[in-house]
């Protein structure tokens, strides 16, 4: 289904295919030969989304452009089932495996692989040809790429990147952080009340 959101309708190349149960919403451009499979969601939540030629977005993947961070996915990429990309740049010929996650402000260099259940944290930059192994986490620039068992070292790097401030504009030490975060973010997401099918 294609939806107009905040006055912007998706632009789908004549040769691109969107499965009937997929959702494409707002300022989204799908280039030549793009395939969007069942259950995938591609949505512009304040930032545009551009998906390059012959890229495949598999079942139940989620791709979100967000305020301050557009999504650009280059040509000839594969976004695996249940993968999640929010506000990131994915250069051409990248493989994002099943369950991989790439967060706001991240850059995944050309020809890289983010393997099953691996994470590229916000504002992390992967050089071209980088591999993030199954279940590992990449944090920072230059990135620390480590298994989840190295939690303390990963946590120290994550704190420096300051997720609450970067994504929501909120100080991590705010006493009612989750109250402010959910109310502010909920108001932004409430803008979907006027969406219409196109």
From TrEMBL:
Domain of life: Bacteria
Protein name: Gamma carbonic anhydrase family protein
């Amino acid at each position: 289904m294609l939806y107009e959101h905040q006055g912007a309708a998706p632009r789908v190349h004549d040769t691109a295919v969107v499965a009937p149960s997929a959702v494409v919403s707002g300022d989204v451009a799908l280039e030549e030969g793009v395939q969007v499979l069942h259950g995938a969601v591609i949505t512009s939540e304040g930032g545009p989304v551009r998906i390059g030629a012959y890229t495949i977005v598999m079942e139940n993947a989620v791709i979100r452009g967000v305020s301050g961070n557009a999504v650009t996915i280059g040509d000839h990429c594969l976004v695996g089932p249940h993968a999640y990309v929010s506000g990131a740049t994915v250069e051409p010929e990248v493989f994002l495996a099943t369950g991989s996650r790439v967060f706001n402000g991240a850059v995944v260099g050309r020809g890289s692989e983010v393997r099953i259940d691996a994470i590229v944290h916000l504002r992390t930059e992967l050089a071209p040809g980088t591999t993030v192994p199954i279940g590992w986490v990449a944090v920072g620039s230059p990135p620390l790429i480590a298994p989840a068992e190295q939690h303390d070292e990963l946590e120290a790097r994550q704190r420096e990147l300051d997720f609450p401030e970067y994504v929501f504009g909120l100080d991590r030490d705010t006493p009612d952080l989750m109250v402010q975060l959910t109310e502010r973010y909920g108001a932004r997401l409430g803008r979907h009340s006027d969406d219409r099918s196109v």
